[in-house]
What we know:
The protein is of the alpha+beta class. The chain contains 8 helices and 18 strands.
Amino acid sequence: xxxxxxxxxxxxxxxxxxxxxxxxxxxxxxxxxxxxxxxxxxxxxxxxxxxxxxxxxxxxxxxxxxxxxxxxxxxxxxxxxxxxxxxxxxxxxxxxxxxxxxxxxxxxxxxxxxxxxxxxxxxxxxxxxxxxxxxxxxxxxxxxxxxxxxxxxxxxxxxxxxxxxxxxxxxxxxxxxxxxxxxxxxxxxxxxxxxxxxxxxxxxxxxxxxxxxxxxxxxxxxxxxxxxxxxxxxxxxxxxxxxxxxxxxxxxxxxxxxxxxxxxxxxxxxxxxxxxxxxxxxxxxxxxxxxxxxxxxxxxxxxxxxxxxxxxxx
Length: 314
């Protein structure tokens, strides 16, 4: 979860942020800022980060951060004007906050095929990871950032009013609003299902959030949010109990899901079999009941091999 701008770019962004707050800021200085802002894409990202950090400090601006004590002592010795005092306060708060934020470690968690993992974060949040899942966790004073690299996880988030909890999956950002939700990322498709509370969804290139409430899901594919769909919350997280539920689901999708839990490949000898639909509840840990059910329900034959299962028409 590396930053898209350099430390120097952020320090320049802070300097501009402070300058623009000064009551002596004129049109010439604002024009200089616009020129700096458009010179490099990373400048806009760094400045947005400075604004975001300042916003998160609303409830913490009296807290001690590195550099603040020195700033107060300097102001006491030199007795600057009120405007300069505010400028110094903004400067040291932002640089101190960013230093704390920048130094926060990033921890990688992953599960193998058929594995599940429960993570208890220090803030009280719980993350349940499904099979073949990778995510990164970065907790700092002001933010809780998760990057879902692949797979699926359920997030039960501990509410903190001054520290945002955000999950990034590809080009989609999911911001918690006190909730429990499931995120499933595969290839270019991301699905978010809210089990409790609500979340805010924001595509990378959008300025607007779209709220999603409990009992509903929404996909992000082809670079855009799809329509909202109602869900059965009791069935959404059954994988936590080692089960999968299908309702009139194409056999190709059923196979794709079950293949996530087993080191085996599925082959359709007759492509038309992939369009058959299936309903039922199956154990993710044992393929045999599922394969036996296929032979009983459909006109197909299952050929089992150590690393491959072939489905052909009977």
